[in-house]
Request: fold
Amino acid sequence: MDPILLLKALILGIVEGLTEFLPISSTGHLILAGDLLNFNDDRGKLFEIVIQFGAILAVVWEYRERLLKVAQGATSDPAARKFILNLFVAFLPLAILGLAFGKAIKANLFNPIAVATTFILGAFVILWAERRQHVIRVQTVEEMSVVDAFKLGIAQAFALIPGTSRSGATIIGGLLFGLSRKAATEFSFFLAIPTLGVATFYQLYKERALLNADDLGMWVVGFISAFISAFLCVRWLLRFISSHDFVPFAWYRIAFGLVVLATWQFGWVEWTAH
Reply:
């Protein structure tokens, strides 16, 4: 296996793991990183699907006891059934809209310039949301109603636009809808499991013709690096939100977006603009 290719796999795995659960858009960062590393062809896109699953497993591992309890009580525990129903309801909006508009969005918006623009626009949404006074009526994930779950599902659907951030949309949406910062963040983590899990297997099935045993080493490196970095990031974020808001992420999005647009405008980096 080409060592340069393995290095690219390592870098992209770390990028996926560190950005999947922060409000800064993993898809956007992978599009930019893939463009810089010249790894944005069909093979590269399939690789991104594989490493995404590594990030999902990090959440499963972090919440393994809680998820096991839900699975064991799926047929007998009302609280467990409510939790599963909420995840299903929240999953539906993005799934339906993704099937309807996914191809058009990928064809027109999956490029660095669109991502950088969305980075900046999304940052202003975060700044606006954080300046509002939040009235918290839902302290924990267990207190969420089906209506709350549906609202967060609608918020998550905005993540179909690359650069928006799936976690950012659900967490900020949760804050606007009356969830505590911890409840919104944890539900975003849990919602990632069915959302990204189904998306991963669906895309793998669609792109099965590209599967090649020669790429196994690259997948393993990317998968492991995504798992480890996502696991560390999830734990860090849970500590961070206990005493901070998301304003620093908004300023990061603005700075990063402006850098990409500037390097494109002045020709310093040959970004793919279509």
